[in-house]
Amino acid sequence: MKLLVAIDFSELAERIIAEAEKLAKALQAKVFLLHVIPPPSPVMDVPPDVEALLPPEELFKKESLPPPFDHPESAKLITIAKQLQESGIDIAVIVAQNDEVMAIIDESKKICADMIMLGSHGHGALFHLIIGSVSEGVIRRATCPVIIVPSVKR
Fold this sequence. Notes:
single chain, alpha/beta, Rossmann fold, five-stranded parallel β-sheet, 20% strand
């Protein structure tokens, strides 16, 4: 059993980790912790120069961009992985740099995940209309069951 768990280090992360730990122990599943680093926005994240005109795939080829594991949040992911490992869970860590939905779907296919777990922040309808929802996008594209951890415990 392979469980892909997407972590974004929001206030919901602790609940997702707790639920993933329970499920992994119950199913004797291997957990793949995934953190997705969004691609840089040409409008906001790239200095105003010629590189801003390059398509995103070319920006990723630049040597000035750090590899995903050099990202500051990767250390947090490794700490979480060690905690889960100490509780007896077989664990792997994945850091991807891509659109969140596509990264989750791509990684689930690469590892042949049996289930995907991620959180839902519970934003309103207007937010989803304008921005979209990662959890909704994953549910629509996933080829395996998706478990959504809600933002508020009910």
